[in-house]
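U., I forgot to send this yesterday:
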Amino acid sequence: MLNLQQIFDVIDDNCDSTSTSYTVVKKTRDINLAVDKFLAMAIQDSGTWQIDDTAHTKDPIILTNLVSGQRDYHFTVDEQSNFILDIYRVMIANSEGVFYDLETVDQQSKDYKSLGFVDGQDIEGKPNKYDKTGNGVFLDPIPDYNYTNGLKMFINREAYQFLTTDTTKVPGFCPLFHEYFALRPSYQYAYRKGLKNTAELRNEMLLMERDISEYFNKRSKDEPTQIITKYRSSR
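Result:
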C-alpha cells in the first residue's frame, strides 16, 4: 500500500527526478490522470461486483424525492459532488414505500412502440419505465404522487482526485496495484523528457494494465460461470 508521498518517491526513483524538475503539482496532476485511467479499465472489466473508490464516504447510490407531475430528474453529480459516469439501475418507491425496478427503454428510438414519453399526452400514474437522455432520467407514466427519497439510482462515479497536500492519503483501490499510480506518471515524464528508460517504464506500465484487467475480470469468484460449447465441424 502506498500513500501519495510514497508515490511521489517512487516516481522520483523511476525518473531520477526531484521536486524541482518534476514538481508536486505536476506529479499530482499525472497521478490523478492515472487514477482516471485505472477506473476506466476497472469499470470496463468489472462484472457484477461494481468498482468504487473507497475514498468516498457514501455508497454509489442516489436517493431523491419523487415529485407528482414531474417526469424528468436531472443529475450530473452525486451527493458529494462526484461526477456521475453511469446510471445502471433505477428504482422507485410505490405509495407504500416499497421500491421496485423500472424497465429501461430508449425514448429516442423509433422502434420503441410505447409513445408515452413523446406523444404529448403526459399521462400520469405509477411509473414502470425510464429513459436516460443526457444527464436526465425520464419516467413513464409521470408519477401521480409524491414520495420523499422515492427515486433510487445505482451509479458509477469518478474517483477521488488527490490534492497536493494529501501526502498521507492512499488510493481507494486494490493495494496490489498502487504502483500503477507511480508507473504511469513515470512513463509520461520519461516520454516528455526523452529518458533512456522510457521504453522500460512503458512495458512495465502495460504489463500492470494487463494484470489490472485480469484481476477485475476474475474478481467475482463467488458467481457461477457458464461454459458454452462451440460447434466444431468434423471435416
